[in-house]
Structure formats: structure tokens, C-alpha cells
Amino acid sequence: MYETANTNRIGLVGGLYLRFRTSRPSACFARRPIKRLMLRSSSVLSVPPVKPFPPQEFRGLSPTTIPSVKRTALITGASSGIGEAFAEVFAAEGFDLAIAARREDRLQAVADRLRTKYGIRVEVFVADLSRRDAVEQLCAQIAARGLHVDALVNNAGYGVPGSYTSSPWQRHDEFLQVLVTAVCELTYRLLPGMVERGYGRIINIASVAGLVPAPAGHTLYGASKAFLIKFSEALSNEVRRHNVHVTALCPGFTWSEFHDVTGTRAQMKALPRWMWLDAATVARQGFDAVMTGQATYVNGRVYRTIVALVRYLPQWLVYSVGRRVGRSYRKA
């Protein structure tokens, strides 16, 4: 059989691939043998196209679906609640974990359980993000253990109940450090590596409180969550072209230790059960949202309906209802 003229071919000679162009049918080599260079048909190969790594069809998929790719997720506030639920979801999807929180005993318990259940690597980092140098130290410890963070969940947070002036400024300052400054700094330090590697997933735990009028009490909570939503939206537009997805996750009331820490559990019991979400569902929906590139995601049909109503109802009515409902579950 003859090869068509003017086709690119590759020969394997001495361990090197050489390309040459034939201007005649390949049968001509039978009439003009080459003494020093013998090209066997078995060594003649077509030129494969060069593909980037990871291939485009693999980008955005979980590590379990990509051979030999192992990614690491860093989750703050992972000792309980939504943070622990996110650790479970990422572990189930094949990620190694770096989990951070203040309570070492709780973190170790979570790490032991996930190592046993999923056979993954789980590194524990004790960090108090209310300290100014906490993020810098955390990133240094992560690098010292040879980890590259591919997914980041900024989950650490709490609330300060009561009116704005009923708490000392130091308490508000620590609150802002954890919910705003630490989130921005941790993202700032880890984002360049994600961009360079062409893969990154960032979830900022915001709240429906950042999308609706704020009632009295917990003065800075809704404000900080609104900031996280806008921060996530802007950053998502900046880095999406690098295959880095950023999502602001906006759950409503979720079963966790949050209200026990703030001392508002008694007030929260007055809310109907249909307004409550479970942490496992919130985390799974958050994972799916960031993997599909959604910049903002509101958990639960009830809360999506509330957010929609807030946008279209008269503002005087929205604020009036918000004040009345807020008195039932917030101290001011």
C-alpha cells in the first residue's frame, strides 16, 4: 500500500523522534535503500496532538474521576457543624484534607474518623483566626508539610448577640478579624497557587442574612455576610478564566453549635422546624455549587423564596416584617 505524498511522518532513531516529509510514495524507499538509517514500519508513528494537563475534559471533576490526581481541601472551623460536614463531603469526593479550628481534641476526632472511613490524608492545624498573625502562621505550617491547597472553605465564624454598644470593641474587632479579614487574607495567600496550577475551588460561607434587611441585634453579622457575598462575586469574575471557581454559600438557619456558642438557643427554639436546614445538606449543595461555577448559592427553597420576595416586595413592607420577625429570635 502506498502512502499519500507530502505527509508528515516520524521515525524512531536512536531513542529520538525525527520528522521528515515524503514527496513520493513510500514504495520509493525500496528502490533507494538507506544504509545508515533503516526505518521500519513499526517505528513510524503519527503525531499525537499536544494536550494541556489536566485535560479540559477533566477540569472541574472530582479527584476520584481523574487518574493519579490528588487534591487537598483546606477547611476552617472544621471541628463541628457546617465545617465538619464540608470535611465529610470533600473526603467522600476523594480530596485529602487540611482542617483547622481552635479545638484540637475535636479536630483530631474528626480527622481520625475520616481517615478510617475514606482512607485519605488528613492534616490537623490548630489556629485561632482572631489573632492577627494566625493566617500567616497557618499558611507557613501548610507549606512546611508539603501541601498545596486546591480547595478552600472559609467557614470559621460566630455571632455577637445583643446591641452594637453592649459589647466591648475588642469583641467586635475579633469578630471582624475572623469573618472578614482572615477570609480575605487566607484567600489572598492561597489564590496565586490555584491560578498557577490552573485549578481552584473557594467557598465562602455567607448567609441569607447578607441578602435580606438586618433586624436589630448581631449588628455586624449581616454586614459581614453581605461583604462576603460581594467579595465572592467580584473574585469569581476575576479568576474564572483560570479555572478557579468562587462561591458565596448562603444558608439560612442550620442545625449546629452556632446558637449554643452565641447563647441564643432558647430564642431559636421558637422558630418552626421547616425553617431549619441540616449541615450535611448545606455542605453537599455548597460543593456542587462551586464545582459548577455558581458565584452565589442560596440553600433551601424556603430561603430562595424569601430572597426573591425581598427583591420584589415594597421595601417598607420588607423592613417592617423583618423587624417584627427579628424580635422573636434576636437579642437587641
Structural class: alpha/beta
Which percent range describes the beta-strand content? 15-25%
Subunit organisation of the chains = single chain
CATH topology of the largest domain: Rossmann fold
* H/E series: EEHEEHEHEHEHEHEEHHEHEHH
The neighbouring-strand order within the major sheet is: 6-5-4-7-8-9-12
Tally of domains: 2
Rg on CA atoms, Å: 27 Å
State the total count of DSSP E strands.
12
The CATH top-level class label of the largest domain: Alpha Beta
**Which parts are unreliable, with pLDDT below 50 for 5 consecutive residues or more?**
1-53
Alpha carbon gap, first and last residue: 89 Å
Helix content: 40-55%
In brief:
The chain is α/β, with parallel strands linked by helices and 332 residues long. It is built from eleven helices and twelve strands.
How would you explain this protein's 3D organization?
It is built from eleven helices and twelve strands. Helix 2 crosses helix 9 and helix 4 runs parallel beside helix 5. With 332 residues, the protein is an alpha/beta fold. The N terminus is likely disordered.
Labels describing this entry:
Rossmann fold, 332 residues, 7-stranded parallel beta sheet, 42% helix, 2 domains, single chain, 11 helices
